[in-house]
Give the backbone structure.
Amino acid sequence: MKIPGTEIENTNPRLAVTVGDPGGIGPEIILKALADPTVTENCDLTIIGSHRILQQTYQKLSQLSKKTQSPELLVNWENLKILDVEFNGKLENIFLGKGNAVSGEASFCFMETAIAQTLAGKFQGIVTAPISKTCWQMAGHKYPGQTELLAEKAGVKKFGMLFFARSPHSNFVLRSLLATTHIPLCQVPKALTPELLSWKLELLIESLQKDFGISRPKIAVAGLNPHSGENGQLGTEEQDWLIPWLDKQRDRRPDIQLDGPVPPDTMWVKPGQAWLGLPAQTYDAYLALYHDQGLIPVKLMAFDLAVNTTIGLPFVRTSPDHGTAFDIAGQGIADGTSMKAAIKLAKELILQRSYS
């Protein structure tokens, strides 16, 4: 599926940045991120959300910067492009630090608007601030998260959550794809199948080649059980189907280095060493079989730097790898680093796609 308008060449990436749940830290981290000129340069960026809430947040940050003498917190308000989105509910019923059905409805409408305008060709990518899944449910929107809404609206059945982070110590790039996402742990063995892993791997290879310019990627695939099953002593999934599936994939893809099943407790040792700048043999990407297996190491290494990008969509989507942080919303202490990384990565991916 080709997005109308994306065939235009030699233009700056056109990005929509959604505010997320307005009761959380989304407005704050966006304004803090956009205060960095390296984030906004060579980019046509529009914030999708509530003009009033953004202005209130800006005023609070301005007051804070005067008290702390920290002008770096200030973005030039006059330079911001804001698309004010109407939603069912009153702004007076949205409270900083507390999500509710109104804030959930607002964030859902922000997201729907960004998707519709991207599919219409106005934007080439979307950067999403955090939402509250609980607040979406309270507002009557029964989606597990933003990723599933994006896929549905784009008409995509096969998609994946790829987490990206670049080490400030060594420039090592960590990429972790989740085979399964937001499901209970007890459902993981049933959800994992050769068919699921086949199209997840296909998406991962396509993303590495198209989005990151890696023509012959090296990929590590995690085992499911401790010690990857210990030859069937600690679980049989590896012996029953995972190892035979890997063998078939290697035969099908001779140009791809595909290693595994790697014991989950040791798969992240070398990436951790590389992250710190120590010499270590690493892979271009790591395929984790369930949520915590892939995200605990990512958040341990790169909590404030990691970015979630949805692969398989006909447009770019990135997001900070953290939540709404209702507990600190409105206090001026939220860290915009991950939002900066999400915007920068979105720009890079759009430019890479335009050249691939």
